[in-house]
Amino acid sequence: MSFKDDKQFSDFYKCHRQAVYFLAAAILKDSHAAEDITQNVFLYLNSSKTPVNIIVNPKAFLAKAVKNLCLNYIRDNKKSTFFEDIPTFSDEIQGCNIEDAAVYSIELEQILSCLKNDERTLFSLHYFDKYSYRELSAVFDMPIGTVQTKCHCAKKKIKKCLKIEGSAKK
Questions:
Q1: Which pLDDT belongs to residue 167?
Q2: When comparing pLDDT for 96 and 107, which is higher?
Q3: Distances from the Cα of 48 to the Cα of 8, 54, 72, 84, 165, angstroms
Q4: 125 close to 131: Cβ distance less than 8 angstroms
Q5: What is the CATH number of the domain that holds 46?
């Protein structure tokens, strides 16, 4: 977005900054990451060569930009966030030594490997990172019913994998 002058950009920023931040915060559930996303959106807009008049609906444009940057953030930080949080998932893991936590982490990774990538992502974000179906629906741009179905199917597959592993160990 190419602005005529700094005042035009400043006015645009003041008008849309809060909405951009709240959307990013709702998606990421992390105020610091939401601030980063907000800054990145407006830095991109200020440095972009796209004329202002080409963008018909700035709010929709900003929402799409925020969604895409949030998806990139989730994708880039998925493994570190996911595995850092593993010790808090179960009471058994809390208070155990590092070797036991590593074993639980490996077992969890093996169990989740029976899922397709999209199922694993939705399941992990919903059950481990506590994103609501509505938030996941907005982030991944799919109907809420589809998100619920994929999470439910993932849960069934995990139960089936656990039953198979349990019967194999006996």
A1: 62
A2: 107
A3: 15, 12, 19, 36, 53
A4: yes
A5: 1.10.1740.10
